[in-house]
Amino acid sequence: MKKLPAWLTYTLLRVGLVIVLLVILILLGVNPFLATALAVILALPISYLALDRQRRAFSQEIAERRAHPERARTRRRGGHEDEDVEDAVVAADAETDLVLDDEREADAADATRTQVHADRAGAREAGAGDAADAKGHPVDRD
């Protein structure tokens, strides 16, 4: 059977202690609201004294995570380093596709601009001898 993480063990024991104290206080006839407040207040020093070993294991686990975050990340993922590599490759491919798409769009825009300039130049050459008004209609010079 897989061992529970220290934080989960400590948390479950503390919640269990509060519930046990709450049940005992209610069975003694204390008002439920007051019993809840007393159970939470009494659970703090009791858990500090009774759950010392679990609290220390929890603290050690936190200290290890802060000292070596990469180990904690690998442990949390179940040791799937190959998935990390695969994710990095997929992300790089996606970034390459975006760059290629941007380049294709830039090439298409350049081709369109080139075609527009060529059309304008051809129109100027064809109508070089003819005068035109602002709308492009031919004007007689006579």
UniProtKB/TrEMBL annotation:
InterPro entries: DUF4229
Residues annotated as transmembrane: 7-27, 33-51
Lineage: Bacteria, Bacillati, Actinomycetota, Actinomycetes, Micrococcales
Annotated region described as Disordered, given as residue ranges: 62-142
Keywords (A to Z) from UniProt: Membrane, Transmembrane, Transmembrane helix
Segments of skewed composition (Acidic residues): 94-105
Pfam family, one: DUF4229
Biased composition (Basic and acidic residues): 62-72, 132-142
Protein name: DUF4229 domain-containing protein
Organism encoding this protein: Pseudoclavibacter caeni
